[in-house]
Amino acid sequence: MFDNQVMPIGTKIKELRKILNMTQVELAEGICSINNISLLENNKQKLTYKLAVRLATNFNKKSKNTLITTEELMRDEDDQANIIIENNIISTLEKIKIIKSFEEMLDEAEWLLKKYNIIDKNKIKLYNTASNFYYNNYSYYKSYEMCRIGLTIAINCGNKLEEANFYISKARINVALKKYLEALQQLEHAEKINDFDNDELFRRICFNKAVLYKKMNKFAESLEYLDKIKNIVNDQKRMMDLKTMYANCLECLQEYEKSEKEYIEILDIAMKLNNQDLIALTYRNLSELHFNMKNNKNALMFINASLENNHNNSHVNDDMFFAAKIYKRLEKYSEAKKYLLRALEISEETDRENSELIENIIYELILIYIIENDEDNINLMEQKSKELNVDYRLIYLELIKYYRIKNEEKSIYFNNELIEIIKKEKNF
């Protein structure tokens, strides 16, 4: 009845009595004196289990829609706070998509952590949820901080399984930050902790090592780790993730025929399951495969199929960016610009944290504007790169080269700006 409130046991009894329109006389009937009820409600007398049973009976005589249990009456403030964290806050955080809303609720949870005795299991789950949220929203440093807090809790309470899981999560973040050596060390540390041979932990370690080696362009090593776990993955989504990465690695090794065969198998399964997200993703992968094979016609056909099946608008800005790359290769600059501008618009509206994609979109737009000698839009995109706080060093290099002959003053300006950026990074 008080799912989102924490209050002393006596206060809770008093509030419950008021909600049910009961007098102290009615609540005390056949149980205890009115004075006992008054002491209870003012938190001057401890509630015993025996008395709680009787109070629940009298409450339920008045309550028509809600059953009041003895356990509910006996819950102290710490118990109530733990229930709010576990049943309300964490479950809500798992569904939230907007960063501001997420952080407001996370602040509420951390306030409860400071004020009440929250069990380690709930703390670990909270920080794991927060780390995953920030990771999925490209806020890698915030994600890492959530991992750090969660890892400390897991170590302090001796939870080896969660300790290993947090090391894996830290490794995943470091892969995204291109800190590959640190990621490898963290995965090896998780492997040492897994002395109880937990299959799920082993799967996570191997899969993340496969991701790491793929990012390091060590595709054979990536395939080796995927082979280690292909027979222990029994979850369909995870199996599709594994098969997709397997096909990606084959593609990077230029084993295009084998890679396409894997993608076609994935697409067939996705269509049977009517999994629109997986259908869209697989068409995107097929488009990239044919792009690498210099088969632009098929690449365009598959990326359009991906966009058509992307009903949830998941990574649609990324798909549009890739479609633009195909049109650019075909020297259809008008079409390329259309897709790039739409991708940028979507990124600004819903995906601002994905700075790498935004940087790539602006860079490609500037390259097209350079081809077209469109200085107005070059200036516009150069300003946009600053507004959106992306890394614009490569953009400046292109502008230095472009203006070297056309406008020496501007070339010098961008050159000096670039020097200042580098000096600032180096703390000169």
UniProtKB/TrEMBL annotation:
Entries under Gene3D superfamilies matching the protein: Tetratricopeptide repeat domain (1.25.40.10)
CDD domains per the UniProt record, alphabetical: HTH_XRE
HTH cro/C1-type domain span: 13-67
GO molecular function terms attached to this record: DNA binding
N-terminal signal peptide: none
Domain of life: Bacteria
InterPro entries for this protein: Cro/C1-type_HTH, Lambda_DNA-bd_dom_sf, TPR-like_helical_dom_sf, TPR_rpt
Alphabetical list of Pfam families matching this protein: HTH_3, TPR_8
Protein name as it appears in the record: Tetratricopeptide repeat/helix-turn-helix domain-containing protein
